[in-house]
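Many groups now describe folds with learned vocabularies. In that spirit, our science desk offers one protein's residues alongside their backbone shape tokens.
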Amino acid sequence: MISRVLVPMDDSEMAERALRYALDAHPDAEITVLHVVGEPSLMMGDATGIALADDPQAAARENASGLLERADEIAAEYDVEIETVVRIGHPARAVINMTEGFDAVVIGSHGGSLADRLLVGNIAEKIVRRSAAPVTVVR
């Protein structure tokens, strides 16, 4: 029986579909939504700003607040409470590191734009290959 499900989310429609799928397929499970704020780089202004904040974890959670509110709204449609977690780091690695202790992972197949599809599709593939728990990829 699946009792704990991890749902990694970005701000894409596919991520919302993954959450809805997890809520439909596993109505009695504890659902944890994970959002990963990328590691700082020259091209990632938000992540760099978060890394330089006095409290990076609080800054990352604030940066993810809209996405987490949306996840809570979706869960409320199912009359379910979910746990939300924000991590800072490489998205695939952060998700893989968190899969231990979960019975299943439900992830969207890709993000919205072409760049997102290439990046997130690559992340989904890495998670499928290295996850400690079975992974369902939602399209």
Q: What stands out?
A: The beta strands are 4-8, 30-37, 83-88, 104-108, 135-138. The longest helix spans residues 114-130. The domain at 4-36+64-138 is CATH 3.40.50.620 (Rossmann fold).
